[in-house]
Please model this.
Amino acid sequence: MDMKIRPRRLRTKETLRKMVRETRVDKASLIYPMFVIEGEGIRQEIPSMEGQYRYSVDKMSYELEKLSQAGVSSVMLFGIPSEKDACGSQAYAQDGIVQKALREAKRQFPNLYYITDVCLCEYTSHGHCGLLKGDYVDNDPTVELLAKTAVSHVQAGADMVAPSDMMDGRIMGMRQALDDNGFVETPIMSYAVKYASAFYGPFREAAGSEPSFGDRKSYQMDFHNRKEGLKEAVLDIEEGADIIMVKPALSYLDIIREVADLVDVPVAAYSVSGEYAMVKAAAKMGYIDEARIICEMAVSTFRAGCGIYLTYFAKELANYIDEGRIG
Ligand code: PBG
Model:
């Protein structure tokens, strides 16, 4: 056969295949989400997320140590308070769970980079992401509380804040509040393109943040929409977001690609709890090869255009990079 072009030529040897790779993966791109809970001596496995735990402040070092050893240097903290009220006051309390965790983690592991999820849903008695007015989440007063939460996190040591509430104008409100308090250099990673998704189910069990009535569709986005996601991304950048996140990851690779092509800031993608739980469950049944699936999911998300990947599999991925399975 007279073929000049034979694509298989570049697939003949492992060294060559690695040479011509189009997507490279790096540990510096990984962020590990971690749950901290009030109390002492707690390292509690999350039933819907096998292998993930809720840690009390005195037990966090167990996980932080393992992350550092694996070479994962960034953590996203989620707090589970012991008391909730209508206005989520533990979210912005000086001695709130995230604030305490930050002070201790920074003292013990000053070289890790600490990002905090800023939202009210884990702290409100009704489980919604803001203040209620009747059955509706009241936007503007919520923004004020979110801004207050962000400032208190940074005062307690957060290196970056990541609002996940989907209120309008919260980036503007938060940037202003951080600047007014002298934190002009603290970046904001916005959960800008966040869909109302059933993939968050296991997280809500982990954090006890399931809404007590209704759903989050009046603030999180409808998964039928694409342009709306681009609009949210652009708006948040105009308001001062430094990094834009798309969430979930796996079913939204098209959105990641479009956002990445459109914006000139780094793009993050969050492989959420439901993605983790599906992999774990299928692997346990022996239906899939867990390690290979984790690698493929991660690389496809980077290939879609994100540069930052939030995943409960961060340690595993770091090990796979060391082993040369991906990279
Ligand atoms: C808080 C928040 C959620 C997640 C991240 N921040 C839950 C939600 O919006 O209901 C989901 C993370 C995951 O599922 O892993 N608003």
Observations:
- The CA atoms of residues 185 and 243 lie 14 Å apart.
- DSSP finds eleven helices and twelve strands in the chain.
